[in-house]
Every structure is written in C-alpha cells, then in structure tokens.
Amino acid sequence: MTDVDWLRLNRENWDDRTSVxxxxxxxxxxxxxxxxxxxxxFEVAEVGDVTGKSLLHLQCxxxxxxxxxxxxxxxVTGLDFSPEAVGTARALADETGLDARFVVSxxxxxxxxxxxxxxxxxxxxxxxLVWLPDVWRWAEVVASLLxxxxxxxxxxxxxxxxxxxxxxxxxxHDYFHGDGEVYDYPLTYTDGPxxxxxxxxxxxxxxxxxxxxxxxxxxxxxxxxxxxxxxFQVFATLRRAEDGTYRYPDGHPRLPLxxxxxxxxx
Length: 266
Prior knowledge:
Structural class: alpha/beta
Pfam family, one: Methyltransf_25
Strand content: 15-25%
Domain Methyltransferase: 56-150
Keywords: Methyltransferase, Transferase
Oligomer: single chain
GO molecular function: methyltransferase activity
Protein name: Methyltransferase family protein
Strand order of the largest sheet: 3-2-1-4-5-12-8
C-alpha cells in the first residue's frame, strides 16, 4: 500500500466518521456545549496547570479535548487531517465562545503548517498513534514543535490490548507485527448509522518503539504510567464505572489497558 493510499483512505474514512460522531450520544456535543469536559481526571492531574500556556493538540478530531484544555486556561491550537472534523471543531469553538485555532494538516506536515511556532505542551489523546505508519518520524515532528522546556503529553490505549482476544485471556495476535493492516468496517466505534467510506489502514506500535523514538528525537522521558482503565469495553470482563470508563472488577487479574507518558524537550 502506497503512502498516498493510506493517507487518502484514512482521511476519507475520518471525514465520513465526523458527521456520525457529531450526532452521536457517545460524543454528546450538546453536553459539551453546556460545559462538560472530555478530559479524564488523571490527564488534568498529570499535565498540571496549563493557564496561559500554548498547547497544540495533534490529531484533534472534532476538537472537544482541545477546547477542554482551553476551558482550563490554555492557549490552544488543534490540528487534524480531516477538513470535516476541523470544520466541526471550528463551529464548536464559535458556539462555546472559546478561543481556539484549528488547522487542517497531516501530522507529518505539522511543522510546515505551523511555521516556526513552538508550543509549551503538545498533547496527543487516545486512539491517535494507530493511524500513523512511522512512529519514529512522528517523534521527530513532536520534538520540533516543542519549545525549550516544553513537553509532550501522550495518553493512549495500551498496545498489549490489541494482542489479546475479546475474552481478555487468550493471546490471539502478534504484538510485534509492524505492517499496516487494512480494515473494512461499516460502523465506527460510536452509536450511529453505517459509514459510506469504510476502509482504513492502521498500524500497531509496541510501547518500546514509542518510548525509544521519543528518546532518539532528543526528549527526556519524565514518566510512563500504565493504567487499568480504558474508554471502551474491549474485554467482556470489564465493568463500566460511574465516570463512563471501564475497569476490571475487584479481585480480577489485570492487564494494562491504557498508558500515559510525558516527555520534555530540555
């Protein structure tokens, strides 16, 4: 599959997802307009006070996380390769009266799209890295976007969950395969109608590659936290908590479900 193919397929797929997501109960745009934050408590705690800081959100989709950081006082920029998603994000900013800039760009072209601007915080939220074929190049882009003393904060689904079957116990897939995999799914991960552009390409990045890529790009790893909480019921054994996340029941053996990482440009 050529570079043009993966980028085109994924952009078309996410353009198609945007209208479904905007109308979905999962994303709950009316609730967001009314003041709801989409950030998890541990993200806010681990990033710390963002008042007055410049924050760039890579792969921002419809901008709810981006705007949630704006509500906490950050000066925010959201970047996404889907024009449909960016259009929704801009409309959401206008509707909520939040000051934000949204830019249409592929992550790998972010440096060109943003000129010489650098940021105090680069934020990447859940479900972003699987859409990028080259995590080493991603890390170089992230490093180039950070001001001196600035940091990347990454919150992601743990790659180990992709190798375990839905029963949460059986090893079913290769953790180390690095080739892009083509998917053809009629539905997105939210409620809503079928998609019309159903094909996408995704890559699995082992945790060691993500950490090593950031170190090679010149960043210092401040922490790597693995969590037993996730956003979807990926295994049948998980139970929904009051905050909408999913966890193992008390006493059940646990796997890491998500992770967070902060890496600083010295």
